[in-house]
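Tutorial sheet, problem 5. The three components below are modelled jointly, 1302 residues in total.
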Amino acid sequence: MSNAVSALQGASYVDGIADVTEFGLRGMITLRGDLSDKKLIKAVKSIAGAMPGMRSIALEEDDGAAWMSPDELLLMVPHGDVASTIEGLSKSLAGTHFLAADVSDARAVFEVSGPKARDVMAKLAPVDFANSAFEKGMFRRSRLAQVPAAFWMNEQDAFTVVCFRSVAQYMFDLLSVAAQPGSEVDAF
Amino acid sequence: MLILNCPCCGVSGEETEYHAGGEAHLKRHSIGSTDDQFEEYLFMRENPRGVHLERWRHNNGCGKWFHAARCTQTLEVFGTYSAQTYEPPKEIKDAISAKRPGWTWRTFS
Amino acid sequence: MSTRLKTGGRFTDGGEQLSFDFNGTTMKGVAGDTLASALLANDQMLVGRSFKYHRPRGIVASGGEEPNALFNMGGTNDFEPNQRATVTELFDGLKVASQNHWPSLEFDVGAINTHLSRFLPAGFYYKMFLYPRAFWKHVYEPIIRKSAGLGKAPRAEDRDPDTYEHFYFFCDVMVVGGGIAGLQAAKAAALTGVKVLLVEQTAHWGGRAPVDGGEVDGQSAGDYVDALVAELATMDNVTMRTRLMGAGVYDHGYVLGYERLREHTPEVAGPRHRLWRIRAAQIITATGAIERPISFAGNDIPGVMLAAAVRDYAVNFGVSVGDRTVVVTNNDDAYRTGITLKGLGLDVPCIIDARSGGGGTLADDARALGIRVENGKAIGMVKGGKRVEAVELCSQAGEGGVLEVIPCDVVAMSGGWSPVVHLWSHCGGKLVWDEAQSHFRPDSERPPLGATGEGFVSVAGSANGHMQLAELMGDAHGAGLAAGRATGGTSAKGHIPEGTPTSENPVEPVWLMPQGAGYKLRSKAWLDYQNDVKVSDVQLAAQEGFESVEHAKRYTTLGMATDQGKLSNINGLAILSDALGQPIPQTGTTTFRPPYTPISMGAIGGEARGKVFQPLRKTLLYEWSDANGADWEPVGAWRRPFAYLQPSESVHDAVNREVKNTREALGLLDASTLGKLIVKGPDAGKFLDMLYTNMMSTLKPGKCRYGLMCSENGFLIDDGVVARIDDETFLCHTTTGGAETIHGHMEEWLQTEWWDWNVYVANVTEQFAQIAVVGPNARKVLEKLGGMDVSKEALAFMEWGDGTIGGFDARVFRISFSGELSYEIAVPASQGLAFWEALMEAGEEFGAMPYGTETLHILRAEKGFIMIGDETDGTVIPQDLNLQWALSKKKEDYLGKRAHQRSHMTDPDRWKLVGLETLDKSVLPDGAYAVEDGVNANGQRNMFGRVTSTYYSSNLERGIAMGLVKNGPGRVGEVIDFPKEGGAIIKAKIIDPVIYDKEGAKPNV
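Model answer (structure tokens):
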């Protein structure tokens, strides 16, 4: 539908030490199943190009697969392709025990970018964001302040943050506060 | 504030990522159990000063439950292990024994 | 008088002129000053009044241990009390006011207390205010409250304009303290290749060494420090921060660091404080040592200062505290003060050394400069009021007989040095008493233990009891190497720097001066300046039986002020030990608790204030609802509209309108917050049969069933409608508050009990906007929008179907929580707002109006439907709510079934659900208890029921309620009493809880 809107409709904050931007709608599928199953691996590879290992993410332009837990992946496809992707999964995984659910609209997606993006993230998540400790290709679920979140790096200085849609405004405000002018930490 | 290693996703995370779930290895009693058995299952808990086996959930993380062998007195963590087990695996028992020779916990030692 | 010296100071050289406001007077300072040094440069010796006796007090120290120089700082919104002048860096426009006096600092009425001190001994409050009892509330308490506290509390209406934040940081080795030992330890650790964080609480590296002098590897200590700082700055694996205090050490290497970012530059944008939440595998506390005062009469008069502080002000800030300084000591270090001052051309009339043997080479140096040195002597009493005028010289061994009066305006005292063991001790590190140096220092054999069971804190430098450069450089270097190796570093050795040896005579403990001081002197010899505790108070406490150091502390309040006894504790427990006739280690110390010095509440809260104080969960319709009159109600973290107010409408009127409109025309409810869990797998039916009390595995695809969930101990935890999607897939609706907890509940059982069952659960709560379309016109609006067939034949009550409505992909459930014809329609959340607007527009001709949670509640209450959290409170079982029909008899087991067999659960006297109808049509108070005659074992009025839900029903034009009443269903028709607050009784008749459409015909059309 053309009237589909993301939680904050692309809001952005660009006055601080890093830029915070809400991405538009992104197709997301929760896939639960046996991650060692050959059928499943094949299906994931056909969608994301690769099968992600523990705590990592495979990305190929708009498509991707992130390792959520030992029996769960988060698949990413263009928002309009979710239904057909789930249909495809249902066919290719027929006969196996799995669950594929559209969670695109249950999420909000943000980008935190700029040379001080690591500073902003490290103010909110109890995770080591040192250059050597958090790198592109890693995928981490944790919390940002008071809400659960997952995040990864797109580029050396850009993070994607995913949270529940209902707390999108909180997350945007949180990232903006953490990026306020004059709050560089310069510890990385 | 503790650091625990989640055996399900390999994260070494601080306590705010986890949720404590009480004593591990409880045996479920239900229909057909005596009142005493059921009471024991529902309410009676170990409260040791020393080695303890506990349940934790990585709720701000992979969402999985796991077990931790920990000293309640020094907060030393002997190891974490799968929640899908009826007793601590040998390597956990050995790790405890190395630090607390002669330890016992319920029927384990 | 105290003044600025022409010679300049290390920190103030070249600094621009600043002006600041002290008690309304404009004073001048220099960039680099602390507030304390600037006040001294302006000859402001008197800086405050003491807590209890309102005695004149001056600056004592030069660092964070300062007990006296506390100020109310700032104006209105930025006001903060009890700020220490010694750690406040001066900036232009700083505004401060001294504390605890009335009407003024110079003339304070409260100073009368000092003359009453004989009548205000330790425990005075406990003794005095006990009787008569009646005096407490109206006489004693108001007086005590008025006199309590030092600084003013900020005004409740003021709002801190500053921001604060947290920062998570991880390192292998953290070194706390940027003195020469900390710097050396950091370098050594860094040489092993590990990641090092070095923090220093002040703005300057080097600590005491550049002031105290000495040489390392042939360089002056100051030059060595500069070179070390420069070298560390080039090391990629070292992070260095000044103005960052290690505030506390906690379990598993967790350290709180308190960084002061904008205190000294308030005009610069950015957070004021940052709380570092650090994880370090190894921590080295290079926290230095604090000089102890000496207990002699009049040791609290302004001008009596720590010897090293006098030296600091001269060297670092170019401030002479006075023209004539008498030094009094029991150790060699204080000679440095005399020598420094003499070198600056100031007069040092005498160095009074309590040791009969006197000092070592430093004493020789002093004598060589022409300073008079008196060994075995003491100060009998300091003369003066608001500043020092003279000291009475006496023998340390005697009782204070005056040998000579020495005029002076400063007394520089040194009772020896106590290592700062706080951070070592916070997490359980133990101490040993070092007899030779008369102090407690860390016992390296008993460190705090970390996650692996090994020690994770070590100590370096003077914090470790190594007071001389010759020992401490090697000690610090070794500590750094060891910590580096313990965290996976290399076995690099580096170069162990050599400090020049000095020949100092050992300290001799002097806990009281003179040794035989009588009561008159002892009652003027202060231990704790901030809380006004004297030697005589501690002795009295011991005499009255407060022998434990923890008891004596609380009885006398020794060490309980904002400085937490940094200067007073060791002296106090030495006096206590002496009074008890036992050695000091036997008395022990009080407990060291974080933070090391006070940290701001703002820093603790971090970013969590204002709009990000806590997360608010918002549905798709938040903005729409807000723009359309929503009166918001918190439901957990969600915000849901309580009612939608039309212009000039009250909440009560809006609710009444919504209720009538929904019953008579068409109501729309945003039900998106309801939990939605997909449960899928070959064992999904078996699993849900265990979770729900009723049978779910027999539900046919396309059908819905209302279900109850109990905990293992039988109590109701959730309810909702389950829809079977296909053979292997169910969609379980939970309550709004239950989405996350029930999801967690399912995962817990699947992961920890039935892990061999093939079931997956996914929480899709927020994927959908769910709109309840309710009322007689519900079908009309859907048919107008067009799409799937929603007729009774195509979609019967308690069925669901997929299709489109008005072009939207929709899943439609024919379920009703209102007793009306009702459809709950789920569309993807991204289209929720558009779908809602389409419904509103199409529904206009059918009287469509949104309704809020209060209407939802009234509609369900009229139908006798229970609400989790209203009718249940964690002690209620389905049987209490007459829901036996939902307890499967066919199933062998389900969660709660065994618990329902327990004797208390089968008790026939349990309170059960009934409807309540007030005789006067009024609305019962929520939670009101039904009472009867007699009292229970606790002397309380007997109760036999309570109100669980209560509303005004505009349909029935009276109050309606539900409640739990003992044997309730068997007492229909009986009238019972509910007292209101104040005692008036409301009479209510017990009725059937279902009062609207008893046959249930309306939703089924």
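Marking note: Chain B touches chain C at residues 1-3, 14, 21, 28-31, 33, 35, 38, 42, 55, 57, 59, 63-65, 71, 74-77, 83-84, 99 (CB under 8 Å). Full credit if you identified this.
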